[in-house]
Structures are given as structure tokens and as C-alpha cells.
């Protein structure tokens, strides 16, 4: 690439293409984006209008955090095609805070704001971990990210979660989801999958790039004809809403919740480091220590904005990494457009309700394609690793993948360990990352910063071909 040539990540596409591709990213992440405010709002027993406000605030803050991450400001923002959303790693600790009468929602917001400030300050130190991530580690982590996401895609295709939590006589309990695995829903997911695969094979240019969006639209039309997609909430939603900072009052700061959320922030930042390295591989853009620092600092800024705008900690959404791999569109301005759409959805509840009306089974058909592509990217990176002359690399991959599968294969595996460790142990991605880093350092030693950046550059160059 010549000095005057623009990298595909920085190319600005025509506006109609940007909007269509940005909407595609929004549809992929929407279900995950609104899940956390729904869970926390219901746990706090907030009235419906407050839960609706939480969702609007979350969409608005998603847009803000995405713009900060993708456009970038001095010292802040990875400037890669990233969509930001509320991290699920924070759900367990926030549910515990919600159950404590002396903490509640304002205590949650205080801990989120503190965690955001902590993330901004800690970013340079977390980015120094780059030498611990040679290709054998990054390839393993990226593969486990994809495999972990497959559980999300499969459950989407099944119609949600196999069991639902309901409160009966004041006691929460798990009940089978009657709509899970229904033949009609599986048929819709398969239809979306076939449409996407057909467009990928026979579509060209822009049509192939928006294959996921067109597949979701086709699935939504089919779901409407079959009576699966409903529009009552769309009709009831208001046209406009104003997201006011500190809507529920001044945040409260309690030591234990603040420390807990800062630990969650470390977990989030290590996962984000893996996501950024994955995006660097997919887009062919070298991700060095300075870029990692800017990206991780943007996670902290996004979390700080989340606490101020009545929502929760933010991180890079791994769902959208798969979409970049499927479409081959590497421009960060596509996710800038997606961030703008999220801002708009936060201010227009009726439009947000329309997007929310898309059934999960429709998204499931798309999820199987996208999340599998993330795993395939990890596998491709591992093909460049020397397994023939260095048998230790086989053990690094084998054992790390095994640890990464524990939360997926046996969700109650760590249930007898201290509750405070749950944020660390419930993430298969984090477990895989920790084990891979430790085993690689044990068997192969730790390289220098220059070696790590050279390896990242070589892998990025390989990904371009």
C-alpha cells in the first residue's frame, strides 16, 4: 500500500451503502444491546415507563460510545469497525447490587461511573500485555470467541433461551421456554440462513455485502406472514424521547460495588483486547500497543458515558466482528453510521420498537453464519503457527480451548467457588485468554513489544490476501 493510498478501514463509502451496512450492524447487535436494561429494570421492579426509558438511554449511549470508538479523538478510539454495547459480564454483579436495598439503581450508576474512570486510567497498563499475545494465543482466543458466540446464535435460532426465569409468589424460578425449538421457528431460521448463503454465492458487489441485512428482512417478512412478528409494541411506542443525563438522580458511590465493577472492567478490557486483535486480523490493519491503549480507553469513556446517561458498562460487541468477516466490508465509517442509527433509535422509541419486533429466530439464521466466521478466522490464524517443530503450541491450543469451553459445556462447574469470582469464571473467553497466555509464557517465554507488533503486522498482512 502506497503512502497516498487509503486503507480500506478508513474508506468513506457512498451514503446509501453506509446506511444500509450500518443498519445491518444494528440489527445484529440490537437483541444483545437491549437485553441488559430489560434484565436490570425488571430486577429493580421499575415501572414499564422507566424500563422503556432505560432502553432508550441504552440505545442512545450505545451510539455515543460507538462514535467515540470509531471516529476517534486524541488518545481515544481504536478507529476500527466496532459497535459498542452493554457487556453481559456486568449483569451478575449489578443484579446483586439491585437486590441490596442500600445500593439500588443509583448505587449501580455510581459504580459504573467509577469503573469508567478506572478504565480510562488503566488502559495504558492493559495495553502493555500485547507481548503476551503471539499468533498461537490470539488465534486460540479468536476461535473460542466464535465458538462461544455460537451458543448465542443457536439459542436465537431456537427462539431465545431453553429456560426462562419467572417470579412466582415472589420467588424467582426457571421454567421451560414453550416456544423454544418449535418447528416453525427453526424453519424461519433455516430460511434466513439459506437466503444469506444464496446471496453470498450468487450476489455481487453491494448485494453480497448486505446479504445478512437482506436475509433478516426476508426472514422478518416471512415471520410477519406466519404471524410470528407482532407490531403491538410498535403502535404503542411514542415517536420521540429525550435522554436526560442523571435522569434518576445523583449517583451514589459505595466501596464494595465500585471495587466489584472495576474488577468487571478489567475483565471487559481483556476481552476487548482480544476483539481488537481479531478485528486487526480481519481488516488487515496492524493493531499496536498505542492503538490498543486508545481502544481500551474508549471502553472506559463509553462506560463513563453509560453511567452519566442512565445505563451500564460498555464494551466492543463480538457479534459484529463476525459481520465484518462475512461481508468483507472493513470501513469503520460503516459502524459510525451504525452508531448514528443507534443514537436515532434512542431518540425515536417507535423506530426502536420496530427493530425490536424482529423475532430472535430470524436473527438466529444470520448468527450461525457470522459467529462461525469468527471461529474460522481464529483457525486461519492458527494455520500460520508452527506445530510441527514446536509441539508445545499444540498443548497451548488444546488446554486453552478446553478451559474456554467450561462455561459453555458445564455452566455450574464453578458454582461452589466464591461468588465474587463469578465475573472471572463465567466468561469462557477470559478463561481461554488467561490459560493461553500462561501456558504460552510457560512453554515459549514472552516476546518483546517489537516482536509482538511485528507478529501482528505480519498476521494483518496475511489477512489482506
From TrEMBL:
It is a multi-pass membrane protein. Keywords: Cell membrane, Membrane, Transmembrane, Transmembrane helix, Transport. It comes from the Bacteria. The keyword Hydrolase does not apply. The chain crosses the membrane at residues 18-40, 52-74, 80-99, 106-126, 132-154, 183-200, 206-227, 256-279, 333-352, 358-382, 394-413, 425-443. GO terms for molecular function: xanthine transmembrane transporter activity. It is found in: Cell membrane. One of its GO terms (cellular component) is plasma membrane. The keyword Secreted does not apply. InterPro entries: NCS2, UacT-like, Xan_ur_permease. Belongs to the nucleobase:cation symporter-2 (NCS2) (TC 2.A.40) family. This is Nucleobase:cation symporter-2, NCS2 family.
Amino acid at each position: 500500500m502506497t503512502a497516498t493510498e487509503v486503507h480500506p478501514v478508513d474508506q468513506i463509502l457512498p451514503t446509501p451503502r453506509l446506511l444500509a451496512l450500518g443498519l445491518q450492524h444494528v440489527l445484529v447487535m440490537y437483541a444483545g444491546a437491549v437485553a441488559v436494561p430489560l434484565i436490570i429494570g425488571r430486577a429493580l421492579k421499575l415501572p414499564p415507563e422507566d424500563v422503556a426509558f432505560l432502553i432508550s438511554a441504552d440505545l442512545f449511549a450505545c451510539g455515543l460510545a460507538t462514535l467515540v470508538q470509531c471516529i476517534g479523538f486524541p488518545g481515544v478510539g481504536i478507529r476500527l469497525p466496532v459497535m459498542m454495547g452493554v457487556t453481559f459480564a456486568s449483569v451478575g454483579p449489578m443484579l446483586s447490587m439491585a437486590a441490596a436495598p442500600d445500593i439500588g439503581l443509583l448505587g449501580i450508576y455510581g459504580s459504573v461511573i467509577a469503573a469508567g474512570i478506572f478504565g480510562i486510567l488503566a488502559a495504558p497498563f492493559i495495553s502493555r500485555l500485547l507481548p503476551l499475545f503471539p499468533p498461537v494465543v490470539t488465534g486460540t482466543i479468536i476461535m473460542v470467541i466464535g465458538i462461544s458466540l455460537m451458543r448465542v446464535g443457536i439459542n436465537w435460532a431456537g427462539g431465545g433461551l431453553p429456560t426462562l426465569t419467572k417470579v412466582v409468589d415472589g420467588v424467582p424460578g426457571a421454567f421451560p421456554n414453550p416456544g423454544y425449538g418449535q418447528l416453525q421457528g427453526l424453519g424461519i431460521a433455516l430460511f434466513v440462513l439459506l437466503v444469506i448463503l444464496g446471496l453470498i454465492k450468487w450476489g455481487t458487489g453491494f448485494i453480497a455485502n448486505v446479504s445478512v441485512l437482506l436475509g433478516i428482512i426476508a426472514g422478518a417478512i416471512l415471520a410477519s406472514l406466519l404471524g410470528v412478528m407482532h407490531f403491538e409494541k410498535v403502535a404503542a411506542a411514542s415517536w420521540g424521547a429525550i435522554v436526560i443525563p442523571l435522569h434518576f438522580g445523583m449517583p451514589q458511590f459505595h466501596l464494595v460495588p465500585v471495587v466489584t465493577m472495576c474488577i468487571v472492567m478489567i475483565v471487559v478490557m481483556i476481552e476487548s483486547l482480544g476483539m481488537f486483535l481479531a478485528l486487526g486480523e480481519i481488516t488487515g490493519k496492524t493493531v499496536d500497543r498505542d492503538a490498543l491503549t486508545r481502544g481500551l480507553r474508549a471502553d472506559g469513556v463509553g462506560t463513563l458515558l453509560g453511567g452519566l446517561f442512565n445505563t451500564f458498562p460498555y464494551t466492543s460487541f463480538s457479534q459484529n466482528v463476525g459481520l465484518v468477516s462475512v461481508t468483507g466490508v472493513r470501513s469503520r465509517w460503516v459502524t459510525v453510521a451504525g452508531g448514528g442509527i443507534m443514537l436515532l433509535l434512542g431518540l425515536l422509541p417507535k423506530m426502536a420498537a420496530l427493530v425490536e419486533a424482529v423475532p430472535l429466530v430470524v436473527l438466529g439464521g444470520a448468527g450461525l453464519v457470522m459467529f462461525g466466521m469468527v471461529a474460522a478466522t481464529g483457525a486461519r490464524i492458527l494455520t500460520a503457527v508452527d506445530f510441527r517443530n514446536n509441539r508445545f503450541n499444540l498443548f497451548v491450543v488444546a488446554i486453552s480451548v478446553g478451559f474456554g469451553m467450561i462455561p459453555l459445556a458445564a455452566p455450574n462447574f464453578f458454582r461452589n467457588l466464591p461468588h465474587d469470582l463469578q465475573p472471572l469464571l463465567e466468561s469462557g473467553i477470559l478463561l481461554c485468554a488467561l490459560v493461553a497466555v500462561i501456558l504460552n509464557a510457560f512453554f515459549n517465554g514472552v516476546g518483546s513489544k517489537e516482536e509482538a507488533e511485528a507478529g501482528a503486522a505480519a498476521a494483518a498482512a496475511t489477512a489482506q490476501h
